[in-house]
Write a structure and sequence with these properties.
11 helices; single chain; 320 residues; two-stranded antiparallel ribbon; mainly alpha; 2% strand; globular
Amino acid sequence: MLVASSSRDNFADIDVTPVAWGVLLSVVLVLLFIDLVRHRDDHVPSTKEVLVESGLWVLCGVGFGVGVGVVYGGDAFGEYISGYLIEKSLSVDNVFVWSIIFSAMAIPLKFQHRVLFWGIFFALILRGVFVIGGSVLIGRFFWLLVVFGLFLIYTGAKIIRHRDDEGEEGSSRGLGLLERVMPVSREFDGHRFVTRIDGRRAATPLLAALVVVEVTDVIFAVDSVPAILAVSKEPYLVLASNDFAILGLRAMYFLLANARERFHYLSHGLGAILILVGLKMSVSHWFHLDTYVSLGVILTLLIIVVVASQRVAERSELGL
């Protein structure tokens, strides 16, 4: 078998103690608890509310990254921020798929936050399993870097060609999976996930939507987790950047769900980012691209996508 060589030395080499893992877990759980309490009344969030919450989630993510930089140095900070930006940018399309799912399943706006809260809670657990498993495999078999890298390049090229329906296949898969376990009701029972019909337990549309959201997240994780592993091999940095990017997705959803037409070049930008990190991952055993160089390229691509998409949207509104 081919085993990994010293290529790991090209990435941040940090000593993560159990205390550091405890801090990460505690911060994530506290933020989840605050968010759950804040939205316990199933209200429809206002535009001002989601703007403030989106800003606070970004502040939390960047703030944790600053803490990582203070404790572990600039290389660790660069890898964390790179992973955070990659996951955040790839998650934009996830947000649009959620919008399609909720619309197709007629989930009231006031209940969507509850579905997304538990969807993201379980997504954090699943991503943790993927990240730890991926890190262990790459640490033992360096040739998996090439396999994952080529997969990302292929996925990026596919996304540039077409991405409008990615993740939607999870809807039929998720519903089919749930219906094998228990009956699915078409009626809501407040914000409950499970109800009773003629004395039998049945899933409400909210549980059905939750299962679909989870299935689509698994589909998206196939792209995003290898992409973050391309910029860092340290499980702590990969998981932390992934967690903080995901935590802010609920606020991002309510902010961007109906604005897909304003991101005309989204697929091109996301595809280019995946191709970049795929190339970086494929050659990382032999050649290391500086973390801050790749971070600068990712930021530049995101800025180009936003500016170009905004111009297209403005021209469309003017009828040009």
